[in-house]
């Protein structure tokens, strides 16, 4: 009896050892090409809830548990934005439960935006109630994609790592949603740093729940030599941005051609966008 209950509890908390997400497959996904520009976007979509005031956290809180007729309309608007990007990192997606109308939101956004490859990481499985997930959307075929459970006192945080280009010198994109707790962030970023330490061309993107100065000076990322967006790149709350919680951090080998906080308030976070250029030597390797 104990083992059965424990197994059910582990499943609900997302502590199972096997991945529980989903993937589009790669049949119709174009190969990675040596474009000089790659358009990146990270967006915490808050499961399709349009929040534009602090009081909405109370009055619209039920939408975190129950379906809402305007959720699909909100997702369609988000998809309209995603069409302009090559690789997208999504946080706070639902993988197909009651509250989303049993729709895998990562898959829905990929198909609505016309992006051929998608990967959903299921981090916290609450069965019919909620399927807390991260997502990757890509116009290019990755070398490989793997998911990692991030350490923390409360299970349910994860990262997706996608590698592109040359096997011996890949472009490595890490999509994540970090904990609010600073102690947990230290452990999670230590884990991430170990994963990326051997690579030269790295992009970290996602909702990191902390400011770049703290991330790059007070955590294990201080050894990674990553380049942040300007300190004024505030993304939260979307209706009055005062905090820079969402980030795209890149290796010095990747030239930042453009970066911005996108004024698109469809969630309680604003999306962050960046265009990067690959090194000339890297391009010539293709």
TrEMBL record:
InterPro entries: Endo/exonu/phosph_ase_sf (IPR036691), Endo/exonuclease/phosphatase (IPR005135), GPI-anchor_lipid_remodeler (IPR051916). The keyword Nuclease applies. It comes from the Bacteria. It holds the Pfam family Exo_endo_phos. It comes from Marinobacter xestospongiae. The keyword Lyase does not apply. Residues 41-269 form the Endonuclease/exonuclease/phosphatase domain. Keywords: Endonuclease, Hydrolase, Nuclease. GO terms for molecular function: endonuclease activity. This is Endonuclease/exonuclease/phosphatase family protein.
């Amino acid at each position: 009896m104990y083992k059965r209950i424990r197994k059910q509890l582990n499943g609900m908390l997302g502590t199972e050892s096997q991945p529980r997400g989903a993937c589009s497959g790669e049949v119709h996904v174009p190969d990675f090409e040596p474009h000089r520009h790659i358009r990146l976007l990270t967006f915490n979509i808050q499961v399709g809830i349009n929040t534009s005031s602090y009081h909405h956290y109370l009055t619209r809180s039920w939408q975190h548990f129950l379906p809402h007729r305007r959720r699909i309309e909100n997702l369609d608007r988000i998809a309209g934005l995603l069409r302009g990007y090559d690789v997208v990192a999504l946080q706070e997606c639902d993988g197909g439960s009651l509250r989303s109308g049993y729709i895998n939101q990562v898959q829905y956004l990929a198909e609505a935006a016309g992006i051929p490859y998608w990967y959903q990481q299921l981090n916290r499985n609450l069965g019919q109630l909620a399927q807390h997930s991260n997502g990757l959307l890509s116009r290019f075929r990755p070398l490989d994609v793997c998911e990692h459970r991030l350490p923390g006192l409360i299970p349910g945080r994860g990262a997706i790592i996608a590698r592109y280009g040359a096997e011996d010198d890949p472009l490595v994109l890490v999509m994540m949603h970090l904990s609010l707790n600073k102690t947990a962030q230290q452990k999670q970023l230590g884990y991430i740093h170990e994963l990326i330490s051997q690579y030269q061309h790295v992009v970290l993107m996602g909702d990191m729940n902390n400011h770049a100065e703290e991330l790059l000076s007070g955590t294990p990322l201080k050894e990674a030599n990553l380049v942040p967006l300007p300190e004024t790149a505030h993304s939260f709350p979307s209706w009055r941005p005062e905090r820079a919680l969402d980030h795209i951090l890149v290796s010095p080998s990747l030239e930042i051609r453009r970066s911005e906080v996108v004024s698109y308030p469809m969630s309680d976070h604003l999306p962050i966008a960046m265009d990067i250029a690959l090194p000339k030597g890297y391009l010539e390797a293709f």
